[in-house]
Design brief:
Length: about 90
């Protein structure tokens, strides 16, 4: 199973902190590509620790400048209905 599908499968059980999601991927580059692909496709949404959604323009910037990797414990992923349909 690909790391992206594994991520979606794990998210069926509830939200996951990015630090936990990071452990599913073999390396940092795979993590960035995989999570960005899931976000871009609408299968997941990125949330702050307070549960608020991070808008697309902000998560793109966080990935682009690399600051997200320094703050994995401050963000989590939540599966969307589209993501649930993809994995089901």
């Amino acid at each position: 199973m690909s790391p992206e599908l594994e991520t979606l499968d794990q998210l069926l059980g509830g939200e996951l902190w990015l630090k936990t999601v990071f452990s599913i991927y073999p390396d940092e580059n795979s993590f960035v590509r995989g999570v960005l692909a899931l976000l871009s496709s609408g299968d997941v949404c990125l949330q702050r620790s307070d549960g608020s959604d991070v808008p697309e323009y902000q998560w793109k910037q966080l990935f682009r400048d690399g600051s997200l990797l320094n703050d994995l414990e401050d963000f989590r992923l939540k599966i969307t209905e589209q993501g649930v349909r993809r994995i089901a």
